[in-house]
Amino acid sequence: MKIAFSEISVPATGTLIVGILAEGELTATAQAVDERMSGALSKAVSASVRFSGKKNTTLLINAPAGLDLARVLLIGLGAPKDIDKLQMQALGGSVVGGLNKMGETVASLALDAPDGCPLSPEDMAAEVAFGARLAGYRFDKYRTKQKEEDKPTLETLTIMSGDSGAAEAAAAPRQRVGDGVYLTRDLVSEPSNVKYPAAIVEDIKGLSAVGIEVELLDEARMGELGMGALLGVGQGSRRDSYIAIMRWNGAADKNEQPVAFVGKGVTFDTGGISIKPSGGMEEMKYDMAGAGCVIGLMKALAGRKARANVIGVVGLVENMPDGNAQRPGDVVTTMSGQTIEVINTDAEGRLVLSDALWYTQKTFKPKFMVDLATLTGAIIVALGTYQAGLFSNNDELAERLTAAGKASGEELWRLPLGARYDKDINSDIADMKNVGKGREAGSITAAQLLERFVADTPWAHLDIAGMAWMKRGDDPIVPKGASGFGVRLLDRLVADYYES
Ligand code: BES
Ligand code: MN
Ligand code: ZN
Questions:
Q1: Measured in angstroms, how far is the CA atom of residue 219 from the centroid of ligand 2?
Q2: What is the pLDDT of residues 105-149, one digit of tens each?
Q3: Number of H helices, E strands in the chain
Q4: Which sign, positive or negative, has the C-alpha torsion 20, 21, 26, 28?
Q5: CATH architecture assignment, domain 177-497
Q6: pTM for the predicted model, two decimal places
Q7: 237 C-alpha to ligand 3 centroid (Å)
Q8: Which position among 350, 433, 452, 488 bears the catalytic label?
Q9: Over the stretch 299-354, which tens digit does the pLDDT of each residue have?
Q10: 293-302 burial: b if 16+ Cβ within 10 Å, else e
Q11: Ligand 1 atom showing the smallest separation from residue 319 Cα
């Protein structure tokens, strides 16, 4: 699907989409079309009992003979003063979804910025384009026999606005964020026989094309650094483990202290010797979604040339049962020197992150670290698939993340940390154990372990187990499957608080 920009006109083909304001008030383009349709449009609006221009409602009108257009799709904008960015993204997404359902190939959307609308016309256009792009994502590379009727039809969506040059310019950085979301969704959608750690490393190396510096730690180097926890998780796999470091130096001052994002990249999680039940185990291909987000985020930030110094670190391992796999009860020594008793080999994400977080903070001394991980099933029990869990040792960082979540539509809900939860991971024979007390507070005790690998850096942990993969498909800009969760959120965080 191509997204194009033009000035406002009544196009000659396909579907024309026009906004209708609250109380059925026609926008300027709607009025122009109404005249060409001898009043059929305004008649349809007043005749409809369900459609009154309320936000997110639609009404489809077939264009009468004499007009070249096939049909006009009316879309409710609500009251101009309430129009916001997320609404415009959802509008772009719903339009793409709806047009594909009706089998349309070309469509144009007229955005007359109404009086009193807080968004500039070019921002409206940019957000619609962003939503359209996010909604247009497909992962069809492994389908060789797709039926015609199952393929998306929409070829071109033209977004018409007062100043198409300004709209296109405003849309460009959002489209680069879209590129990042697409990369994350691709990486997370790919099966684990294709995207094992070394394969993801190759994709990461490809980011040097957009100006990202890449550095790798292989198993030998991680051994020298003493990363026994990360290496222990990977030791049952035939695939080599890696840490990959991506660096984007976009700040005016190249020596400015960076911000850092750290991702759990378990390319498949069988559970190891504490093996998972087979029903649903295929879902564990997305256990690298934290890393996938960090990789897509780096691409987004570099793509839009964010004026910030940013480090991305991903721990890439496969958790397999094998003759060489670690056993329940094994004790591993982390890079920090602290020891962990591995009670359950399925609580592996925290082991990977313990070394990745320690390494990141010691090596880069960042302003803050945010890690993302599909860490616990318990966070899905707590928050479902609507918000990710947020844990932090720093109120300012937590508040900024929460605000960026609201602004981006990728929302976070903060859960507590504290000494009483922390003591639940004390071990009888090592510094700590990798699980708490049974099922109690499972997401919190996991976060407590991570916190033990944060010295004095502001840090936040996002448990995205419920958000990385969407079974619902009811969000117009997040198709079913890999969501790309976190890219839009963290791009917003950087844009709103950390750019020079
Ligand atoms: N990768 C899983 C968590 C997960 C569950 C992610 C469902 C996405 C969807 C993680 O490694 C895991 O296995 N966690 C265990 C921890 C337990 C053994 C303490 C869990 O949540 O059951
Ligand atoms: Mn696990
Ligand atoms: Zn896992």
A1: 21
A2: 999 999 887 889 999 999 999 999 999 999 999 999 999 998 888
A3: 15, 20
A4: negative
A5: 3-Layer(aba) Sandwich (3.40)
A6: 0.98
A7: 14
A8: 350
A9: 999 999 999 999 999 999 999 999 999 999 999 999 999 999 999 999 999 999 99
A10: bbbbbbbbbb
A11: 11
What amino acid occupies position 278?
Answer: S
Name the helix (H) or strand (E) containing 26.
strand 25-26
Domain ranges of the chain: 2-161, 177-497
> CA-to-CA distance for 222 and 225, rounded, in angstroms?
5
Active site residue 492: no
The pair of structure tokens assigned to 378 is: 């318990």
Q: Which residues pair with 158 in a beta bridge?
A: 4, 108
Closest atom of ligand 1 to 271 CA is 13
Q: Could you say which architecture CATH assigns to the domain 2-161?
A: 3-Layer(aba) Sandwich (3.40)
Q: Within the chain, what is the greatest distance between any pair of CA atoms?
A: 84
Mutate to test the pocket of ligand 1, among 267, 350, 375, 483 (most ligand atoms within 8 A of CB): 375
Contact status, residue 196 vs residue 204, Cβ threshold 8 Å: no
CB 288 within 8 A of CB 266: yes
Measure the CA–CA gap between 444 and 447, rounded to whole angstroms. Answer: 5
